Amino acid sequence: MNPISLFCILAGVTLNAGAQLLLKAGTNAVGHFEFTRANILPIAFRLATQPPIIGGLACYVISVGVWVIGLSRVDVSIAYPMLSLGYVVNAFAAWYLFGEVMSVQKLVGIGVILIGVVVLARS
User: Fold this and answer.
1) GO: which molecular function terms (predicted)?
2) Among 3, 53, 75, 104, which lies 20 to 30 A Cα-Cα from 69?
3) Could you tell me if residue 93 is left (phi over 0), alpha (psi between -120 and 50 degrees) or otherwise beta?
4) Total domain count, the chain
5) Residues 30 and 106: beta-carbon distance below 8 Å
6) Residue 90 lies in domain
7) From the centroid of its chain, how far is CA 3?
């Protein structure tokens, strides 16, 4: 995998992970909600107008473009497993940004993911 291909794949992964974090920030701003017939439109409007949610959706759109470019250069059997790096990024970012718990079990899972990505990338 050449540097440009690697950049495209990692940029897609990063944008995808960033989108998830922005969506979480947007839902945190709205707070816990239940969809019922009475509140579906007001909640949908509040969600749709949250800047972090708009930013997250924009990240998704850009990530698809970058990802398509990456897929044109890299075998999908190599590129797709790289998406799992998003789990690693999000686990640490959620711990840092949102105060989510980082347990030993999560750290072991992250280690397994990283080993798997290295093995696949070297194949």
Assistant:
1) transmembrane transporter activity
2) 53
3) alpha
4) 1
5) no
6) 3-121
7) 22
